[in-house]
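User: My advisor asked me to double-check a structure prediction for Putative transposase before group meeting. I don't want to rely on an old file, so could you generate it fresh from this sequence?
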Amino acid sequence: MKRARIVLLAADGRSTRSIAKEVGVQPRIVSLWRHRYADHGLEGLQDKPRPGKQPIYTKTTDKRILKLLDKPPPQGFARWTGPLLAEALGDVDVQYVWRFLRSHKIDLVARKSWCESNDPNFTAKAADVVGLYVAPPAKAIVLCVDEKPSIQALERAQGYLKLPNGRALTGQSHDYKRHGTTTLFAALEVATGKIIATHSKRRRRVEFLDFMNSVTAAFPNRKLHVILDNLNTHKKNEDWLKAHPNVQFHFTPTSASWLNQVEVWFSILQGQSLSGTSFTSLKQLQEHIDAYVNAYNDRAEPFVWTKKKVRQRRFKGRRITQL
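Assistant: Sure, here is a fresh prediction for Putative transposase from the sequence you gave:
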């Protein structure tokens, strides 16, 4: 734009200094473009090719890096690293490898996990469960039920460790003593987020049905829709269901227990109540969990289902490398 203004003002007979002042450039710049236009016309206003250093790495280099990532890492290594990639390429600096990985948002350490369901009725079952979350039947209670087995009562040495430099660290020893295990049966009320939980030594069918008896007693004369996973003890309970006509079981698809909201609560329980704790007896562990359940119910809120679509996504057409 400035070059065109310089030429047009020069055509009006303006001096170099007056043009430079109006356009806002140095007089030598005005002189340059006046002479370029006089010698070459409009083509003289275009940039000339500028010689520069040829890039060392090109798109071919990028393709080589991606192709190498598709191959197994060197023998004895679990995954590729920047130095390993640079060494395998032979002529690419490791810093360029790191820059390329960052620009393409490739993380060599982080790993994604997935669970592919082979249930032929995945869509129907998932829609049934999600439908209970987003549009529960009128005057009915929707519950998510499952169990967390073999919670260990571990006693760990805890306290402060004083270092030679005078600094004190707090933590726990890696050594521990076992005091038994408990299986926690839990039912999450979808509408309120509150939990009903009981402890059991085992997770057999008889313990499951005993827990369901306590759940039905907590909601007398109410229609209950119970979401369960495909554990064998949850199935083949037709006799119990006949004796409890107000209860209907809904099963998540195979390998899709993540659809059960009580699994989310078990994760919260592990993170907020169980991780990093120490117990001197099984009774202490059970009382600790019961206290957490009571505290959680005082501030419980329902989970909000935010997934817009639930569908089975096959791996067809996707590249999966098996090592």
